[in-house]
Amino acid sequence: QFLRQLGIHPDWQFVDVYGMEPELLSMVPRPVCAVLLLFPITEKYETFRTEEEERIKAKGQDVKSSVYFMKQTINNACGTIGLIHAIANNRDKMNFETNSSLKKFLEDSLSMTPEERAKYLETYEAIRVTHESSAHEGQTEAPSIDEKVDLHFIALVNVGGHLYELDGRKPFPINHGETSDDSFLEDAIEVCKKFMERDPEELRFNAIALSAA
């Protein structure tokens, strides 16, 4: 529904990934061009995120210039940012309506920096007003400042044969290594499993695939 509101033809759809075992992954329609992961931000995760950022800054990583990445500056808009990351990095596969608000946003923001894209989204009413309908984060009221746990969306995409994690809270995309169109779903789920292994007591993980309809 949200994709249609943004002017995308329904030849792609978001479907739930019911489990990470091969037989459950086999139920997901192929091809899959992106995976969104919803996960809890916990102290364990924040510690890992800081260490990961320092490690990549020290060692460096290869990120293709064609990866579309944007920062997140709007609270609780991670569902929308995840969706934009999923669509933007597969825009050659999407069929947009001529008056699509998302198509216009992507065309306008292609030459911008990740920070400029975030600022542009803040002013872009057509996407911003519908953003919470995609996020289904279950937050009826804003969490308090002391709230330790929050739920957050990231996108996993295949750009040029590499699997990238796109998280607007991070300073840059994370390159998780090589992938292919055929193995992308399985490769993305392996990344999701690492998130779960870091927080074994947590149950609030949910994966959604952008699949061919």
UniProtKB/TrEMBL annotation:
Subcellular location: Cytoplasm
MF annotations from Gene Ontology: cysteine-type deubiquitinase activity
Site feature Important for enzyme activity, where: 167
Classification via InterPro entries: Papain-like_cys_pep_sf, Peptidase_C12_UCH, Peptidase_C12_UCH_sf, UCH_AS
Domain of life: Eukaryota
Pfam families named in the record: Peptidase_C12
Enzyme active site: 78 (nucleophile), 152 (proton donor)
Transition state stabilizer (site feature) positions: 72
Keywords annotated in UniProt: Cytoplasm, Hydrolase, Phosphoprotein, Protease, Thiol protease, Ubl conjugation pathway
GO cellular component: cytoplasm
Record-listed E.C. numbers: 3.4.19.12
UniProt family annotation: Belongs to the peptidase C12 family.
Subunit description: Preferentially binds diubiquitin; the interaction does not hydrolyze diubiquitin but, in vitro, inhibits the hydrolyzing activity on other substrates.
The protein's name in its UniProt record: Ubiquitin carboxyl-terminal hydrolase
Organism, scientific name: Chauna torquata (Southern screamer)
